[in-house]
Each structure stands twice: as C-alpha cells, then as structure tokens.
Amino acid sequence: MKFLAVLCVRNEAAFLLDWLAHHRAVGFDHVLVYSNDCDDGTDAMLDRLAEMGHVTHIRNDGPYAKGGIQFTALKRAGTLDVVRQAEWLLPLDVDEFVNIHVGDHTLAALLNALPQATAITLTWRLFGNAGQVRYQDAPVTRTFTRCAPAVMYWPWRASMFKTLYRNDGTYGQMGVHRPRKPDDARLKDAKWFDGEGRTLDRQFKRRRIFSNFGQSNTALVQLNHYPLGAMESYVLKADRGRAVHSDDLLGLDYWVERNFNTDEDTSVQSLAPAADAIAQELKSDPELARLHAAAVAWRHARFDALMRHEPYRALFGRLLMAAPSRPVPRKAAHFMAAHATAARDGPRDS
Questions:
Q1: 327 belongs to a structural domain
Q2: Contact criterion met (CB below 8 Å) for 336 and 154
Q3: Where are the alpha helices (DSSP H) in 31-123?
Q4: What are the pLDDT tens digits along the chain (350 aa)?
Q5: Which of 30, 119, 288, 321 could bridge to 192 as Cys pair (CB 3.0-4.6 Å)?
C-alpha cells in the first residue's frame, strides 16, 4: 500500500461516500476509519465499506486518553498492520479535501514534483458558508466554492496544515496536524517541504503546526477545509461536539474565525469526473444507497429536533444575523502579533 488516509468520524454518513470517492480519485489506496457514538448509521456504512474492501473500520468507543477521542485513535493506529504497511500517511477529517494543483492532480503527481520530500505540509484554505442556510444532499466541493484569500495574516488557524509524510520510522506516532515522537537519529535526514515546494527549516520537523503568515502556501497543493457547511449543518456540528476538544461548545467565535468568502476557488473540481464515477459506483450498492438516504433523512430530523431547544435556536439565529468574516489587514495583524510576541517573551503581569 502506498498511500493511507486515517479518518475519525461521528455522525458523518451523509458526507462519507463523496469524501471517500474524492480521495480515491486523488490516489489513496485505502482509508483507516475510526468511528464513535454514531446515531446516523455512520458505523453501519463503514462496516459495509469494510466488507467491500474500501476501508478498515474500527469502533473507537473509549476509554479515551487525556488528549481526547482523535488523539486516542491516532495513538492506537500505530499498532495496526494496515498502518505499518503504508508508505505514506495522512490523517484527515471528513471536512478536509486534498487538492493538488500539479500534473494529473494526484498524490503521485505531487511526489513527482517533490521527489526528495519525506514530509509535505498541506495548508488549509478555509471555505466559508457563502450564505447557505439549509443542508442539501450534494457534494461539499460543489456547494461551497467561496473561500479565504490565498494570503492570510490572521488568525493563525487559517494557516494550519496537515502533514503527508513517509512512513519510514522517522516518526513513531501520528498526530492530528503533524507526526509525533521523532527519532533523533533519523530526523537529520528528514526533508520537509511546504505546499509551494519550499524547503522548511528544522522547527517544522519537531513542532510547527501552521505555515508562515503573509505568503501563499498552496501553489502545488492545498487542503480545502470546509469547517462550517450550511447553517443547519453547523447546528448539528455543535450538537455532535469536536473530535479534538470534545468539551468545547461550538459557537459564533468558531464561525467568525472561519467564515471567509472573499475569493472563489473551484480548482478541486479538476477531479470531479473521476470522483463522481467512483461515488456512483459506491451508491450503486443497494445497502450503501439505503444507508446514505437514511443518513440524509436523519440530518433533517435531527435539525428539527434541535430547533425545539433554545440554545440551538439561538445559535441558528446568530448565524442568520452574522455577516461574512472580513480578512484582517496586514497592519492590524502585525499589531496583534507584536503584542502576542511581547506577552510570550516579556515579563508576566503580576
């Protein structure tokens, strides 16, 4: 196996087949998926996909380590043969889509462009809500095409990345954004590149989880990130909870830091014909088609149920009232960054 994606999901069955189809088209040979506490049939869909050979499915029902649900899954994944046998690893979320801009837009083309790489950072490009209110059963990459500018100065989350890395023993454990537990003896030979093909310095080999501000980081590859979806879907996301910080309630602050719609980017659709063909093949299976339809119905019913409770009605109302987010100008971002640096490096307030 050359390329393995690792995914953690809860109540995502309505999106799963389109996500899987896209990443099969990108070039992933297999997907390892952890599920937990599913109410919409995600676990049943994954069981069927596992029977068909498309995924390896493991129920991640706990107990969970201090780092939370996703950290626990990734830590356990390192013991599995399906991980050990892979040449390249990439942990992803179901709202993230690999988008390669070189060659035939596949992982093979990306490695051909960066033949020396042992790790490549895939920087997020944040895709906003674009005023979509009601959830629709349609591919995310076709529904949401408005996004943040290629160059962002604030917030730092807009420049976070996921790491595609060679599974050669340099790192002993997967992490959400970057590999962990480096082997010092091997680290000197690791070669990290960013999504523009630039060589990255040694701090990226150990600790960085976001790309440098104020520059484009995505000429060769980017990670399309759709963290919001339609307003209905965001309410369901708040109900579901977060995979990393499961105790944090989603509110308007999370929304504002991600709802950028100033630009349009449809480049991910370069693989749409191939992905659509794979999706149709998957949905031709009667059991997968039934589970997908049931998941779509579940999302509509769950939203109606949540709207009977004031906290979720209030959240939905705030989303309707909130304007799209404005990118922070460079001068203002530098002002805030200077204060952040001073707070980190200077004497603490008494």
A1: yes
A2: yes
A3: 42-51, 69-77, 81-84, 107-113
A4: 899 999 999 999 999 999 999 999 999 999 999 999 999 999 999 999 999 999 999 999 888 988 889 999 999 999 999 999 999 999 999 999 999 999 999 999 999 999 999 999 999 999 999 999 999 999 999 999 999 999 999 998 899 999 999 999 999 999 999 999 999 999 999 999 999 999 999 999 999 999 998 999 999 999 999 999 999 999 999 998 765 444 567 999 999 999 999 999 999 999 999 999 999 999 999 999 999 999 999 999 999 999 999 999 999 999 999 999 999 999 999 999 899 889 888 765 54
A5: 119
Q: Name residue 15's amino acid.
A: F
Angle at 120 between CA 8 and CA 102, to 5 degrees: 105
Residue 121 domain-assigned (yes or no): yes
| Structural domain total, the chain | 1
Report d(CA 300, CA 185) in Å as an integer.
53
Question: Does 140 reside within a domain?
Answer: yes
Q: How many CB atoms lie within 10 A of CB 73?
A: 25
- Evaluate whether residue 152 is within a structural domain: yes
CB 218, CB 195: distance < 8 Å: yes
Report helix angle 286-306 to 13-26, nearest 10. 130
**Domain span at residue 219?**
90-345
**Strand pairing category for 221-225 and 119-126:** parallel
**Total residue length of the chain:** 350
Contact 149, 246 (CB under 8 A): no
